[in-house]
What we know:
- Its EC number is 3.6.1.7.
- This is acylphosphatase.
- Keywords: Acetylation, Hydrolase.
- By secondary structure, the protein is of the alpha+beta class.
- It is built from three helices and five strands.
- The protein has helices at about 1-10, 25-35, 60-70; strands spanning about 10-20, 40-45, 50-60, 80-90, 100.
- Strands 4-1-3-2-5 form a five-stranded mixed sheet, with helices on one face.
- α2 (about 25-35) runs antiparallel to α3 (about 60-70).
Amino acid sequence: MSTLGKASGALKSVDYEVFGRVQGEGRGYTEEEARKLGVVGWVKNTSQGTVTGQVQGPEDKVNAMKSWLAKVGSPSSRIDRTNFSNEKEISKLDFSGFSTRY
């Protein structure tokens, strides 16, 4: 039974950067979506007008958050593109929740 749990519970980490009209009230929505999906990490506005961060959690939940970051976003956002990088399997989570960084 533990083998099955391990196979379906692989933890992933991915960095992201979202381009478009994405700064403003969106970070709160990102935090809310992350908590709803059960992923951890952080989000931050950059001086270049993008939003960047990191998401960690079970692979299926990280994939769901990636889809939200790339296609949905906050109600007032306009996403032009989302870059994902440094995607890897991890042995443990580096964060206990999802937060906004300044």
